[in-house]
Amino acid sequence: MRHLTILPLLLLAFAACTQPTAKTLGMAEGKALLAAKDPNLQIVDLRTPAEIKQTGIIEGAVVMNFNAGDFDKKAKQLNKNHPVFLYCAAGGRSASAAQQLQQQGFKTVYDFSPGMSGWLSAGNKTVKQ
Q1: What CATH code is carried by the domain that includes residue 41?
Q2: Rounded mean pLDDT of 59-73?
Q3: By CB distance 3.0 to 4.6 Å, which of 15, 108, 113, 123 could disulfide with 91?
Q4: Range of 109's domain?
Q5: Is the residue at 26 inside a domain?
Q6: How much is the average pLDDT of 105-122?
């Protein structure tokens, strides 16, 4: 009988280990990833138009306003087999978006947790959209 109660726990643990996971990046890791200039890296800015107008975007980013309600639809434009670098203002929306992309089967998702506020505080540049 003990074996029957352990089996579901083992199956659950195995399933959790096989699902893709997002990697949270700090400033140094995020800058290094962007500096590598991987042509397959998909950089996604999740902020609102007002936020973007105020600060600009990280060079190479595409804008997908996470608060607009159509993120799942827009995410289908991304390649699930290429890495995705997500950022927002401070890390909240990027964490939520990373979870959604994982559920959609994206293989490699990076959540840039300092967000744009951290990016700018560290003296990094942006481009106007």
Answers
A1: 3.40.250.10
A2: 95
A3: 113
A4: 20-121
A5: yes
A6: 97
